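Hello again,

I reread your note about wanting to compare the complex against the isolated chains. To keep things tidy I'm splitting this into two emails, and this first one only covers the full assembly. Below are the input lines as submitted, including protein chains and any nucleic acid or small-molecule components. They are followed by the predicted structure of everything together. The single-chain runs will come separately.
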Amino acid sequence: MTDATNDPTHSGGGRKSLYVQDPRTKRRAAAEKRFRAYGIGAIATGMLFLVVLITSIVWNGIPAFTQTFITVQVALPEEKLDKSGARDLAVMKKVSTFGYAPLVDTALVAALDENGVENPYPKAKRLRALISASAAAQVRDTVLANPDLIGTTQEFRLLASSRVDGYLKGRVSRDSIARDKNIDAEHLDIIDALRTAGLVKRIFNWDFIFGADASESRPESAGIGVSMVGSLFMMLVVLGLSLPIGVAAAIYLEEFASRNRFADIVEVNISNLAAVPSIVFGILGLSIYIQLMHLPSSAPLVGGLVLTLMTLPRIIIPARAALTAVPPSIREAALGVGASKMQTVMHHVLPLAMPGILTGVIIGMAQALGETAPLLLIGMVGFIATNYPENFIEGFMSPNSAMPAQIYEWSKRADPAYYERAWGGIILLLVFLMAMNILAVLLRRRFERRW
Amino acid sequence: MSPIWLFITILLLAVVGFVLGRQRAIASVDDHRNLHSRPNYYGVNVAMLAFGPAVLVLGAWLVIQPIIVNQMVSKLIPARSYEDAGALNLIMSDVQRVAEGLGTAVAEGTLTQAGSRTLDTETSDVRALLGTVGVALGSEVKPEVLKAAQRYRAAAATGAWIMTGAVLLLAVAGFTVAYAQTNGRLRARNRVETGMLWLLIAAATVAILTTIGIVLSLLFNTIEFFRAYPGREFFTSLEWAPSFSGRGGGSKLGIIPLLWGTFYISIVALLVAVPIGLFAAVYLSEYASKRVRAVAKPLLEVLAGIPTIVYGLFALLTVGPLLLTIFGDSGFGWMSGGRAVMTAGITMGVMLIPFVSSLSDDIINAVPQAMRDGSYALGATQSETMRQVILPAALPGIVGAILLAASRAIGETMIVVLGAGAAARLSLNPFDAMTTVTAKIVSQLTGDSDFASPEALVAFALGMSLFLVTLALNVGALYIVRKYREQYE
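Full-complex prediction:
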């Protein structure tokens, strides 16, 4: 201030009015604006990434939930399917899918003729490119389930091949199939004609949600259902083990360990384990559970055990926070009326902390559900998810995959039709994660008490 | 008795113990207000002593018996019939399959118990026999394998008998002792609470055991690896070229190209995540209104909740093709395929943004308001306060956050497996495909390899390196963060 009165020209720089900013102030104001703009830019970039990510998931994944089917009338002649006429299932089973495939071919030719579609192929076999390789098996399964159908003509909704499906979804075009051995442009003409006739339709694809994985050449019939069951059984193991162990460890550290050496060691271990890369837990599972203890590899039980070890520190940390949040007055009141330390904790502190603990458990399990890397090491890879487990025990012990591992498997396969399945699987996975997180938030909102 | 039934039996015994113990305690006094503890504690005391020790022995036995039986049986395999530990492992898994097959054959009635013991390879076709019960074997059963399998079955059966006996004895003994002791003056509650405390301690020990398990499993297999492969080569060789054909010879397993790929990708990821995350944190903590903060912060954190497999697919199918159209042959011509350091790095950066931003947010918020007020009082603008007062004060914490993010980036697997490529390469071009330590752990351990060849064992050495690097980063970061927090508390 004294400077200013002594030498008015020095700091003012020839300033005439307080309302006019001098260059230095302008510079500072500009710097301020720039800095703020960087902040907004950073947040906008983050949001942009989120939007791009979500859009590409939804855009690419939604088509997986519909599938193309071709409706045809298949004649089921007795002389081909059951020569004896005795309808003996054991005999009928001897007719393999090779016996059924010609029936499907004939049905396709008939469908073309009936609707006045020009058929460029003298050999009926060439039309097989239109339908999935599993179509014959589909007819066979229906007949074996209901032998009375033999001798009649039945309407079947046959799964179209993945190329046809891709054509309807815009993934496959006439240009892209120019060098494709599996399908010709004429096939697509037939499909166009059948579509106008109303025989080719895209309908909701329940088989994707509940079906099993298929071989590499049949993306049209691959589903994520079996690996979903694998994930479910793994989560049961994780819940069953990590909830009691995590809560018990948190109680010990928070309520009983009186800053002793043991508690310190445990604490350091927990904070380090929380940051150990997940793949290291996979190595641990491989060498301890499989190599040393000879548990069956690829079993959801082992996957669950590995994920439990990984999730435990992530559960213990929020559980401790929830226990700390219970005010000491509760403990003192309980001790005051004569409860023992253990009774105080079990009857008063733990029930009050439970909503917070459960929130942590659910979030920890959501993380475990999306984890892939450790599962690959213990053999829970995608392609083994082909059968539903036979019973509850088998669900834990028989080889299975998990949702993220199945998605990884699909993303490795060569056929682009599998990419669509992978994105679709991601939508399902994210729906589960979202449901779990919403549950956690609701739990917190509903039961959380502010002391 | 199978372990499950054994478990159910002792569980039942415990339930019975609970009921009887409770009744006995009540019966021992005229008025149950004279009991030392509430009646249930007496019941739990009996149940605990019947169940606890027995189930401990059962668990330990189930873990240890297979190891011992394996050791015993592997001595029966003559040393001339295998070359190294890997071949022995293969033979041992054959032995187990044959033993299992004999078990199923007996269970299904194709063989009698005695028949399974006297079976020999000269008089009967064991392979065909096991084939009929659904156990397919790759080759003819060698006499020594069959013999070992029979011995295996015998040892396992004996072990199971002893186990059943020991566990039941222990359960009954615990039951009897606790029941006999039960009377009105027994301090049952204190006993039960001591038991519970031990249970809590055991749960806390799991964390320590996990760490020990990680270190031991990495250490033993790493030592095994360095026996089969020279350590100097591993640390100094500039080439990564595992041979897939047979084992031994021809494989070049140098860690340097993998480390280079790992660090290059992590640096790209941090270059994306740190500026964005840091500026986002600054804006959210100092500038944003409450409403903006309430929306933007959770939305950013959604990015952290998305599983890494999703990011992997995003890298492979969205980021990679996008970069390829810009920098590929149709654009700048620097990139030859969708999988590259940039692809994985950018995607990983996106994943790490919320990680950096929420940690830095906490740290910036922890700087005392007095420091801001002082700076404003001197006439500094908000951005000057931020740059010259708050960020320097928060710097140690932010460095800690960046170190934690770096440790995340180094340990990340799925993004690099899908986005970075499979070829190990020492190149400076960020648009080249490279590979990382984690990606190679996955590829070396998911093949059909037999865990004894150097090609498979190298994964454990890689895992050990990864573990040590991330551990150092974490410990360093936690140390810095903790030290900094103490300053203001």
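For quick reference: Chain A has two domains: 63-204, 225-447.

B.
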